[in-house]
Structures are given as structure tokens and as C-alpha cells.
Amino acid sequence: MVNTLPSPQNLITDTWVRATWEEFLAVCDRLDLPSDDRPALEKARCYYDAGWMRIEAVGIGSAHGQDNSLLAAVVTLYGTLRNIPQIAFTNGSFRKVGERECQPDLAYYIGAGVQRPPKNNQPVDVNAYGAPTLAIEIASTTLNDDLGQKRLLYERLGVQEYWVVDVQNAIVIAFAVAEGGSRQIQVSQVLPGLAMKTVEEALQQSQTADDTEVNRWLMQQFQALG
Fold first, then answer.
1. CATH number at residue 167
2. Among residues 220, 222, 223, 207, which one has the least CA distance to residue 167?
3. Does residue 69 sit in the same domain as residue 143?
4. Is the same domain home to 18 and 92?
5. Residues 110 and 143: beta-carbon distance below 8 Å
6. b (16+ CB within 10 A) / e for 198-217
7. What is the DSSP string of the chain?
8. 52/71 same-domain check
9. Are residues 143 and 73 in the same domain?
10. Is 3 within a domain?
11. What residues are paired with 165 via a beta bridge?
């Protein structure tokens, strides 16, 4: 049988293309194999939704990495100070077999009743453990897709809240998700009381202040909430 799957070097990246679930898995497996001739795909992200796949080969630059770290600190500090149980994933993969898969920059299971997925090297089985409560995409060069097709993916997956961080403009666009749809919100519902304007101010401060300064400021804001 002739193998019709594209080689990793010839993949169409950073756009949605038609593919079966089996084709998607085969391409992802190939990306996991060591290779010296495709360094641009070493950190590729794999997404799948209802017959379409997207392989992101976007390089992870300083702006993306710093904002990713800051958002992780925001959620962790807020949850800790407000005593909100959470289980965090950085660059984790979440799979609903045969239907969809996503690899958000950050994801959280939030609340006392959530199940803890096992620690292993396999994608989290959404059928067994549910979708993450909160998914976050850091959009340095993928803003339109994060607000478009990926937003639909996360709606269908069943997350409760979805944030898109516009790196260039230091803006957080947050959505509450329910009944297969989403609406923009200014205050988190899964982290009650956390205003997006506070997160945005932290992003703006991080352009000139170091992480310790920003974290101290965040703690002051969060403690003032009582």
C-alpha cells in the first residue's frame, strides 16, 4: 500500500486541513520521532476538531514565554490565596478519542470535586476525566485562530472558561462556555472575583518590571479582595 501521508517536512502548518482521526494520529506520531531536518516542528502543537487538523510550528519566542509564565503565576497565586483547589498543566494534551484534541499553553482543573488525571506521557482522556475547567492560549502570532476555530474546539470539548492572551496588546479576551456556546466575560467565573483588567495590568507591568515585582503587586491586589 502506498503511504499517502505527508512527510513532516511537507506538512501544511499553521492552518486547518482536512484529515481523518487516524491520519491526525499518524502525523503526530511522526512529529514525535527524532529528526535533524525539521527543527521548526520540534515544538509543534497538534489540534484536531471534527475532521480538521492543525499543526502549529510557530516558534516560542520571549514574549510568548514570558506571558505564559505570568499567566501561570496569576492563576496559581489567585487560587492559593483564595483557597481554590486547582491542578495545572503546561503544554498538556487533551484528547476525546476520534473527535478532537487540543494542546493549550495552560490548562487547569479547578474545584474540590475534579478528578486528578494520572501522571504519565499520554494525552489526558477527556472521556474519563472531563475537559479542563480553564484553557488558556497565549496568542503571539495565532490570535485570529485562537479566537476563531480553536474557540469552537474548546466549546465542543466542554471547557467552562477559555482565555486568549493577545501578547502584542497585553489584552486578555475571556469567554465563559456553556451549552456548546461562549460569551465574553470581564470577570472569571471559575476563579470568582478575578477581573481580566487585573490580569491585563499585570501583563503591562511585566513589560518593565521583573517577575518578583509583578507577583508582589498581584498578591496585594488579591489580598485586598478579602
1. 3.90.1570.10
2. 207
3. yes
4. no
5. no
6. bbbbbbebbeeeeeeebbeb
7. ----SPPGGG---SSEEE--HHHHHHHHHHHHS--SS-GGGTT-EEEEETTEEEEE-----HHHHHHHHHHHHHHHHHHHHTT--EEEEES--EEETTTEEE--SEEEEESTT-----SSSSPEEHHHH---SEEEEEESS-HHHHHTHHHHHHHHHT-SEEEEEETTTTEEEEEEEETTEEEEESB-TTTTT-BHHHHHHHHHHTTTS-HHHHHHHHHHHHHHT-
8. no
9. yes
10. no
11. 138, 172
Contact indicator for 41, 11 with CB cutoff of 8 Å: yes
Whether residue 59 is predicted with pLDDT greater than 80 in this model: the reply is no
Distance in angstroms (rounded) separating the CA atoms of residues 193 and 101: 30
- pLDDT for res 30: 81
Do 39 and 92 belong together in one domain? Answer: no
Sign of torsion, CA 193 107 172 81?
Answer: positive
Query: Burial, 26: exposed, middle or buried (Cβ in 10 Å; 0-12, 13-18, 19+)?
Result: middle
Of the candidates 136, 193, 129, 206, the residue with the CA atom closest to the CA atom of residue 166: 136
Q: pLDDT (tens digit, 9 = 90+) per residue, 165-221?
A: 999 999 999 999 998 899 999 999 999 999 999 999 999 999 999 999 999 999 999
Listing from the earlier edge strand, what are the strands of the sheet with 124-125? 16-18, 52-56, 45-49, 100-102, 94-96, 124-125
- Cell readout for 187 is 470577570
Q: Residue 85 sits in which domain range?
A: 62-224
Domain count, the chain: 2
